[in-house]
Amino acid sequence: MKCTNDTIVAPATPAGRGAIHVIRLSGPEATTALRPFLANGDLPLPGRHGLRTLVDPATRLPLDQALVLSFKAPHSLTGEDVVELHLHGSPMLLQELLALLTGAGLRLASPGEFTLRAFLNGKQDLTRAEAVHDLIEARSPQALRLAAQQLHGGLAETISTLREALLNTATQLEAELDFPDDVDQLPQEDLARTLDLHVTELARQSASFNSGQLWREGFRVVLVGAPNAGKSALFNALLGTDRSIVTTEAGTTRDYLEEMLPDSPSPVVLVDTAGLRAADSAAEQAGVLRSLKQVEGASLLLVLEDSSCAPGPGEISFLETLPPRPRWHIATKADLPLQRACPAESLAVSTITRAGLDLLRQGLITRAAEALGESPPSGALTNLRQLGAIHQAQLIMSRIQLEMATLPRDILATQLRAALAHLGEVSGQRAMSEEILDRIFGQFCIGK
Ligand SMILES: Nc1nc2c(ncn2[C@@H]2O[C@H](COP(=O)(O)OP(=O)(O)OP(=O)(O)O)[C@@H](O)[C@H]2O)c(=O)[nH]1
Ligand SMILES: [Mg+2]
Fold it and tell me: Which residues contact 33 (CB under 8 A, 6 or more apart)?
């Protein structure tokens, strides 16, 4: 069990030379532990900052002139006593000071531990904590906007509205049971209508995951086709770099590669995959399985066919059995003589003459923009953890809906409470296991 009431310390800025480095301390001993490091021993008042000379406590030799910020519990980021040291951006100084602080009894924080404490101390719900992580990790302006909206409480509010509605129904049923003389029983048809509304709202919320993912991860364009169809060459041509290996040998690409389409106003992620065929070797088979996994998560499939040769054995049937995803047929190697009848709607491209490449690039950008829409979806789910919790609530609600006529109302009320608990997991209102919290906060960087 991780200790949550000791005092932790960590750098809050990336390592390396720069203008400043920030070190954070949080916990009951934050101010006491720092005092020996101050030349004249005085900290700025809580909520204030001040320039201080930092010294080595043993030798009293100066270490740096630092801006010191002090916060008193509960009025701080973590809800605990917090001190921030804004130092000059020297990696050597950072290393030395951290060694002295940990030597003085402070514990080096684990990744995300400051945010975990903020969550445990009720300063931030889980959706906002996850938004901080998404904000830091954002790879596109769209991902940044979505994270900012979630940080502002977009998802937390939506979940709270959903919970409120379910809670009203649960409370009505419980009141009927507890005070049968004072509270009228909700007619069966009204209850059915209310449950329908809850189920519809939950379905809407779970569907919001797709648009949330699009804004967070980008529009995923997966290049698929037989070995040697020209996927890696096209991937490189769209990126403008030699990112993927291209050879005349069939079966060159084994693992998938992904990169953002450069200079695209909407986030487009290009994914190069291993060629699809009934592979002989275990390594190639594993590559094919990975390609199929990528197909599952695709926003759009670019289905490539080499127009300069006849289809290989089983090639077309392999492509036809791919899961249903929006697709765009591409006839590759358009600079060579045509040797096969590609689908009529195919776009002919060549990485040698660059024919069709601008059209393809523009088409991808347009499709991505259409899929994403103008503004970030309000209150959308953005990760699988949140989606899992909503799915659990949906499962229970669908069962209640089906069995409503036969289930006694006290059981209905208990089931509604169970669905409510799952909704509470989204923003962390329900007690969470240490394992789940570790999984969430362990993705953060140290010092966050
Ligand atoms: N003439 C011509 N050759 C091309 C074109 N695109 C790719 N090639 C050639 O086709 C061969 C296979 O290209 P790759 O891009 O490696 O094919 P792939 O689909 O990635 O193949 P795997 O990784 O084995 O699945 C290479 O020799 C390329 O140089 C093109 O537009 N025109
Ligand atoms: Mg390849």
Answer: 7, 25, 101, 104, 105, 106
* Predicted confidence (pLDDT) per residue in 221-275, tens digit: 999 999 999 999 999 999 999 999 999 999 999 999 999 999 999 999 999 999 9
Q: What's the confidence (pLDDT) of residue 3?
A: 67
Same domain, yes or no: 245 and 361: yes
Best residue among 222, 223, 232 to mutate for probing ligand 1's pocket (most ligand atoms within 8 Å of CB) is: 232
Tell whether 222 and 362 lie within a shared domain: yes
Mutate to test the pocket of ligand 1, among 222, 228, 257, 304 (most ligand atoms within 8 A of CB): 228
Which atom, in ligand 1's list, is nearest to the CA of 245? 16
CA-based max dimension of the chain = 87
Distance, in Å, from the CA atom of 86 to the CA atom of 18, rounded to the nearest integer, reads 12
410 within domain boundaries: yes
Instruction: Give the chain's domain count.
Output: 3
Window from 57-66, 288-297, 386-395, 423-432 with minimum mean pLDDT: 423-432
Q: Which domain holds residue 30?
A: 8-125
Same domain, 230 and 313: yes
Query: Which residue is closest in CA terms to ligand 1's atom 7?
Result: 230
Q: What is the pLDDT of residues 317-340, one digit of tens each?
A: 888 889 899 999 999 999 999 999
Entry pTM:
0.80
